[in-house]
Amino acid sequence: MSATEIVCRARRSTARRHIAVVTGLGLAVVGAFLVRVLLGDFTVTFPDLVRILAGAQIPGATFIVLETKLPRAVLGVLVGAAFGLGGAIFQTTLRNALASPDVIGVSMGASAAAVFAIVTLGLQGAAVSGFAIAGALGVSLVVRLVAGSHGGYRIVLVGVGCAAFLTSVVQYLFTRANIYDAQAALVWLTGSLARANWELIGQLTLTLVVLLPLVWWFAGALRLTELGTDTATALGSGPRRTDVLLLLAVLLVSVGVAAAGPVSFTGFLAGPIARALNGGRTTLVGSMLTGALIVTSGDYLGAYLVPDLNLPVGVVTGACGAPFLLWLLATGRATRSTS
Amino acid sequence: MTAISTTRQSTRGSSAGRLAAHDLTLGYDERVVVDHVTTQLPDGQVTVIVGANACGKSTLLRGMARLLKPRGGEVLLDGKSIHGIPTKEVARALGLLPQNPIAPEGVTVIDLVGRGRTPHQGRFQRWSAQDEAAVTRALQATDTLGLADRVVDELSGGQRQRVWIAMALAQETDLLLLDEPTTYLDVAHQVEVLDLLRDLNASQGTTIVMVLHELNLAARYADHLIAMRDGRISSAGAPAEVITRQGVREVFGMDCRVIQDPVSDTPMVVPVGRHQPTTPRSTNRSAHLVEVSNHGGTA
After folding, report:
1. Are strands B207-211 and B175-179 parallel, antiparallel or unpaired?
2. pLDDT digits (tens, 9 = 90+) for B34-59
3. Cβ contact B111–A11 (<8 Å)
4. Residue A92: CB partners within 8 Å, gap ≥ 6?
5. Which residue, among A216, A233, A275, A333, would best test binding to B if mutated, counting the most B CBs under 10 Å from its CB?
6. Which of A109, A299, B19, B180 is the most exposed place for a label (fewest CB within 10 A)?
7. Quick check: pTM over 0.95?
8. Could you tell me if A281 and A272 are in contact, meaning their C-beta atoms sit under 8 angstroms apart?
């Protein structure tokens, strides 16, 4: 075998693995999506679903599918993808599995701002979403400024501190809230697909259509960022590209939170799971699909796992994420140290 | 500068350099680490920077590779301030291997070495036949072709270091800067890596600049030696001019004898220290050990 053949073959084998992982995850997302739409307390057959989508009016079924089941599944996929991608960008850029937006206070910033808007300012609807996005951006900026440019470890510490502070702000706001506002604000704390409707989905789709190509454009820099600041600079990648990428990740997470609340630990779980499937290598597409899979299947489990108990998806993902967080800390796998 | 003459002339008599520092001051936070340094790195030669711990040698190297913004003065690449040149353009002329490069989890050798091609790639046309050829050459030069599909984390220290050098080679720059490329390697692998860099210098004419800890290896592999002390260049020139008894005392504050390296005829430093056997060395190993410990007891 000639030298060029060896190089070609070695290059292809990792690419093939990645394609296999992405294909597998893609099929799993389609599967979870169909389960969410077809099964549950009101079952719809697949042929019926096709007919409904084609415009047929089936009494009962059409309404339930188009107004609750389908929007919930679609929103789950979109929000999960946004969280998965945003989380993986954070973890890869900062080279720390703990540095995901839901651990370092970015999601909490969005929640706190939304709760503030509802409880103190009495706002509703799009204005609250705007506050959520502004809150996420604000917290990221504060974390970045306080932590300085020293990388992942300090950002995690400062971020966890900020998250704790914001939690107490939220708790204070709740003590001041009337019962109706508190009910509305609760969604911003747990994360739930219950608010799913086509208008919300339309807004989120539009934002993702703008953000995803930008992420693709800047994500090439991640291949160098992963090598550490010195090597990345030596290979001609400026620090500004990674800052832009982090900003895009914050936007992804904040529009996700604005649509469904902080579905706890989705961003935190998606990256490492996709990575483990891909032989330890970073895969943004894989992380995105894993996020979608987590939220869609988590929503289904939350709704039907325990009879007569309808759990929001955030409760399910939180329950899965917490043990994973402990496992990461206990095995010391959180940070990638020097080689 | 004291007793040592600060000749910039090197063995090969060249002093022209594409990369130069002019009145360069570098530091971290409040601390000044490199203090008004002016130097030129001779083209097509192997330059080694030596000095005691914390003398600023790594910082100078990082500064020359535009990893640190100067406090004062500037680094010149082809006569232009390096910070004024687009970073990707610099990356096509100057490569740097940091002291502790980070291998991403699960990354394969071929993938890592391929990333060295980034400065030559456009945004849309991502992998070309030239990239393929350059990576193949880099793997062959470092004897890592057989490791191409292996995961970097699983390699031995010596193999890993060769892979990192392969990545820097794939960048195909005329200037290659290396920050202690032999740390964590045993002596056999140290020599192997340094031989590899010398080969590269001989075959491609690559200008090599590196920081080394081991004085005797530095003296053997360098054309041009820069000795630093307290953030300044204390002497620079051919190894024979820099490595003298006086020079070593100046830079390391250590008394030594300088003899001729029996293999390469380059200067070789033998530290004096406080403990030597008092009687001539015996060929009997155990007797020798007894001597040393007796001496230690009475000293």
Report:
1. parallel
2. 999 999 999 999 999 999 988 999 99
3. yes
4. A222, A225, A226, A271, A282, A284
5. A233
6. B180
7. no
8. no
